[in-house]
Amino acid sequence: MNQIIETILNHRSIRSFEKDRPLSQEQIQTIVESAQAASTSSFIQAYSIIGITDKEKKTRIAELANNQSYVENNGHFFVFCADLHRHALIGKMEGKEVEPSIESTEKFMVALIDAALAAQNAVIAAESMGLGICYIGGIRNNLEEVVKLLKTPDRVIPLFGIAIGYPAKISGQKPRLPFNHVYHENVYEENEQKYIDELQEYNEIIQKYYEERTAGKRNDTWTSQMGTMLEKQSRMYMKEFIEGKKMNLR
Ligand SMILES: Cc1cc2nc3c(=O)[nH]c(=O)nc-3n(C[C@H](O)[C@H](O)[C@H](O)COP(=O)(O)O)c2cc1C
């Protein structure tokens, strides 16, 4: 165990931040530089990060993300974007026809993976400074509006926000799936009964977690939560939206 692993294992999303306590420029810079230090597929660096300092924009993003109060009230709000815009420019600079490659599903995946790796580095950096974080996928409720607000060009897809700040309320840690359930060796072990047994075991842990956290008010298991969520289709406009931004999924 070392301090970095302790920080990682201590993660929990923070949804309440100290009021009027913004991050310093130095903290913002360290967080972004930590994001940039992440590995990046073929050195492509296919992401951008937009910090939201404009109060009205922040309020509007909070509205678009289902009125989550911590999107508005935090120390700093970052939006992580998949970004192949600069690569289209590189095509022009270098006189190369790059569009067919840029407009592929593979490059879209590369940009998503790059942005996620950068984001999680930013999160670890922030948490190591004693700050709290919450990812905000809610910005994908209405990406057309977010794009207008942030003026992102074609080939740039805002993926999620991260609210960062000084924690005002520390939440409990959510237990994860059992190690054996997510870790396989050499081959994917596909054993339905074993999977069901492990999920039931995990359900008991999660049920206890919710019971304790809500003084017995919430009676929920992980599989029931997932079943209810996955029964509904969400944000089904996404494929069309992405293709409309010239990230064609060929
Ligand atoms: C990409 C992404 C999007 C998320 N979006 C939201 C969100 O919009 N609102 C929210 O309250 N939490 C959001 N979360 C946080 C998850 O709900 C949280 O990580 C999960 O429940 C596990 O809890 P923990 O982070 O406290 O361990 C998001 C997490 C990720 C990775």
Automatic annotation (TrEMBL):
<keyword id="KW-0521">NADP</keyword>
<dbReference type="InterPro" id="IPR029479">
    <property type="entry name" value="Nitroreductase"/>
</dbReference>
<keyword id="KW-0285">Flavoprotein</keyword>
<keyword id="KW-0560">Oxidoreductase</keyword>
<dbReference type="GO" id="GO:0052873">
    <property type="term" value="F:FMN reductase (NADPH) activity"/>
</dbReference>
<protein>
    <submittedName>
        <fullName>Oxygen-insensitive NADPH nitroreductase</fullName>
        <ecNumber>1.5.1.38</ecNumber>
    </submittedName>
</protein>
<dbReference type="Pfam" id="PF00881">
    <property type="entry name" value="Nitroreductase"/>
</dbReference>
<dbReference type="InterPro" id="IPR000415">
    <property type="entry name" value="Nitroreductase-like"/>
</dbReference>
<dbReference type="InterPro" id="IPR016446">
    <property type="entry name" value="Flavin_OxRdtase_Frp"/>
</dbReference>
<comment type="similarity">
    <text>Belongs to the flavin oxidoreductase frp family.</text>
</comment>
<feature type="domain" description="Nitroreductase">
    <location>
        <begin position="8"/>
        <end position="166"/>
    </location>
</feature>
<keyword id="KW-0288">FMN</keyword>
